[in-house]
Specification:
Blueprint (H helix, E strand, L loop, with lengths): L1 H32 L22 E3 L6 E3 L3
Antiparallel strand pairs: 1-2
Length: 70
């Protein structure tokens, strides 16, 4: 009888663990899927509307960026 009780406890733990994995996986899935490529365009100019060359543009919170060219 004790062996059956241990098997039931192990089964409950397994089901509980799987439920946690499914729950937290569903929470983080949108964040993982939200990482898509985005195209940004524009012109970097000074106060006289002259194009600026060599300006670094970095996406906030990342290490991704570009440098402007003429």
């Amino acid at each position: 009888m004790k062996q059956n009780s241990t098997a039931n406890q192990n089964s409950k733990r397994l089901i509980c663990c799987l439920a946690y994995i499914l729950f937290f996986g569903s929470l983080f899935a949108p964040a993982i899927q939200a990482q898509t490529n985005v195209t940004v365009s524009g012109k970097v100019t000074d106060s006289k509307n002259t194009p600026l060359e060599g300006v670094s543009i970095i996406i906030k919170g990342t290490n991704k960026g570009v440098v402007t060219i003429k």
